[in-house]
Structures are given as C-alpha cells and as structure tokens.
Amino acid sequence: MTTHADLQKALEPWGAVEVETEVSGLRNRVWRIRLRGERCVARQNDRSGEALDWELDLLGALHDEGFTGPLPIATASGERRIGGLVVLSFIEGREPEGKRDAELVGDELRRLHSQMPARPQRPGFRTCHELVATDSGGDVDMSLLPPEDAALCRAAWKELPEGEPAVIHGDPSPTNIRIDGDRVGLLDWDEARIDSPLLDLGGLPDAESARLSADDFDRARRASVAWEVAVCWQLESDYARRRLRELRDLSGKLSP
Fold it and tell me: How far apart are CA 79 and CA 208, in angstroms?
C-alpha cells in the first residue's frame, strides 16, 4: 500500500510536491497533489511502457489540436514518466448537467473522432470488431465471461457498422468530463484507443446529444454497455453485472 510519504518520495524527481488526497483506486491510483504550489494530478498504473507512451503522445497531440485535457508534466530531467507514475495538469470545471451540457459533450466527442489525425492502434489493444472473433485486447478478456454473456456482448459489437475507426476517449462518463462555460475538458484517457466512435457516443444520455437516429443510438448504446461489461468483468464485478442486466434488457427490446 503506497502511503503519502512513499508517494512524495517517488515524486521527488518532479520537484517540491505536496500530496493532498487520493481520489481514485480502481484501475489506477490517482492523487491530487501540488507541484511547486500548482494543483496537479499524480497517477500510477501498471500498463506497459509502450501503451502508456501512446497515451502520453496522444495527450500532447490533443493539446496541439485545441482540445482541453490533462498534459503530462516532465520531471526536472525531462522524463514524462517513471515506470507507470505520471504527473498531469489539473483541469478546472464541473461535471456535466442537463441537456445543454450533454450537447456540448457530444459535439466535443464528435470533434475528437473527426479531427484527430490517424495513428496506429494503442499497443496491446484491439477494436470491438476484432474482439468479435478473438478473446483479448487491452483491458478485455472475453474468455473470463460466461459463454452466453460473451456472445451477447459480441452480438452488440457486431451490430455496429464497420466504418473507419478513430481515436476514442473510451470512458466519457460524467466523472471524466469538466464543463467550464462552453469549454469541455476530457479527463482520464487511460482507456483511449483506436475503435468505433459509436462506443463513445453510446455513452451519451440520448440520441439527440449523440446526433444519431434512434435506431443508430440504440445500437451504439448496446455496444457501449457491452464494452463496460467486458472491460469491468474482473475489476468491478458488481458494476459489470449491473451493466449486464442493462444489456440484456436493451437486447431483449429487439425481440418481437
């Protein structure tokens, strides 16, 4: 168990750090800190160096394209990370509320999908279409699910049109979004990858904010919920099973 004293020592290469509080503890451990008096975020995870470097490269590219998101802060000697430990800038704002905010988030996600330059897949990851025919990629291992539930997830992904994949955020839940006026900040790019943009849009509240037809939004919602089931099956089993019940309900509506 990492204590604040342990973390403070690990963060010494970045300079004078004060650890304030831990704010997450599932897939990653995340702390609010102050670096030379400025509010920042420290994050520790166990992804491969190649997968983490892909994310850090993406954060820089997002900034260059005018997106609001965390930027990696280098150590005094210029390193972006030490193992899986990174320090990121803090993004101000509040979580989205109501129709207007949902539309702003939908617009920003579509801008992400259309504007970011093409890039190779994140090392070790696979798209949902690839996972129809194979078991593992990124945080997903379909072999861990009961066969009937894995088949339900794959059926949802198979419904998505096989359009051009794009950079997606991967987890645009309200806790990972900050609204500041008309500006949308997207936090926590740990699940970012190349995949169907509909997986992001299916996490929005409704078809209107996603700017999809009702049928297309239903397909996107089922695929997005199926992804949550698969990616959380081991890590957050209670949550994954709640989403599985939702997926069964959504899929049942297809029956006559």
Answer: 43
Q: How confident is the model at residue 102 (pLDDT cuts 50, 70, 90)?
A: very high
191-225 tens-digit pLDDT:
999 999 999 999 999 999 999 999 999 999 999 99
DSSP character string of 27-92? SSEEEEEEETTEEEEEEE----HHHHHHHHHHHHHHHHTT-B---B---TTS-S-BTTEEEEE---
pTM of the model: 0.94
Q: Both ends of the chain: CA-CA distance in Å? A: 52
Give start and end residues of each alpha helix (H) in the chain: 4-10, 49-64, 98-115, 147-158, 198-201, 207-210, 214-232, 237-252
Give the three-class secondary structure for 253.
coil
